[in-house]
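User: Fold this; tokens only.

Assistant: Input:
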Amino acid sequence: MPRAGAPVVPLLEDRKVLERATRGITQSGMNSALDGSTLGVPMLAIPLASHGCGEVVRLDELTPEVLQRTTEKVLGEPQDRTCGKKLSAEIPALQGLQRPADLGERVIHSRAPVL
């Protein structure tokens, strides 16, 4: 449920909003992360699920060799497959974006960690 005074729109073009923003909150999707980085907008990333599956590679460290090594590691790690299956089971319980939105609201209003 939107808070009082919050606009409700059928479609929100993230990039147009970020062009005017001084900061942003994202679910850590590729488009939002890339748009925020491209526009120089600091972003608070709240993933849909806390998972730790796979690997993170910084774009400034990405080379063909790093990509190959990281891909082989992820494909060969049994815990990544197990974690991926666990994550896919958790996603339906998130009820879309309601939980991340609620957590974001709590952080904004309390100005303190909520987890």
